[in-house]
Write a structure and sequence with these properties.
This protein has about 325 residues and is α/β, with parallel strands linked by helices. It folds into two domains: about 30-135 and about 275-300, 3-Layer(aba) Sandwich (Rossmann fold), CATH 3.40.50; about 140-270, Response regulator (Rossmann fold, 3-Layer(aba) Sandwich). It is built from eleven helices and twelve strands. It starts with a helix and ends with a helix.
Length: about 325
Amino acid sequence: MKKILFAAVLIIAITGILPVFAAGRGQQSSGNIKAIFIAMDSQDEHWQKVKAGTEAKAKELGNIDISFNAPPTKLDSVTQLQMVEDAITKQVDILLVAPLNADAIVPAVEKAKAAGIVVVIIDSAANTDKYDAFLSTDNSAAAALAADEMAKAIGGSGKIAIINHQAGAGTTMARQSGFENQIKAKYSGITIVGTQYSDGDKTKALNIATDFMTANPDLAGIYATNEGSTIGAGNAIEQAGKAGRVKFVGFDWSADTKSLIERDVLNATMVQNPFVMGYEGLQVGVDVYNKKTVNKQTDTGVTVATKANAAQIDALAWGGK
């Protein structure tokens, strides 16, 4: 009798354990798909909007466990790489990552792909083709629009300065080169006096903008390439009492950039669709996981925000939610 009872318990134990192993790599016993979004940082409203997009899609689909992680600063590409390594160790099914550095992230991204993880690059490029999909703003095209807005604001001639964010990021180079190339091609009367990197830090951007205005009393305009740089440079222009005199074109949309527009400090800002990046990025990841064919590259679009259309931009930036 004891042998029969033991055998029955053993069978129950084995059959209870088997579904856990059968779930396979990254699968939970509930059958949910494990996904993670690793951003550039957790501070900028831009990344909070991308995160909100992933969470909205996960809630809509119902069978996704989505988590979020980010380095403490935009300078910490080593920590971001370690976060991807950790996601591989935890056997996630879908990895969404916004690379801080297009080169530094490559070994981890390629390792994730080799491990059978679906890899979706968000917002900023990685210098490899070993990923499943890439969703971002066409940053070169957006930067060209920014150049057009600057030229319009300063009347097609004058000295301008560029305040970029972190060196090495794909977005950084595209937003700089796209702007410079458009100025060179269309606006011979405009001179770029210099480019400085703020690392997306508002205080650094404020100091850089102040230095540019001090060194160039006749500076006609400043172009900033991300949210932190835009807020910092805008604060510098306002503190110097040069709002409206130094024309200003920026990037990204937040409560602070909206306020700069409303106070007539910021002439225009290039508004991306971060919510859409996260929302559609997770959907693409799930489609690849389910063996569906997807576009390898998707342009999520950009809108030029000015005081005239600022009231409509909030809904756009949050995906209409």
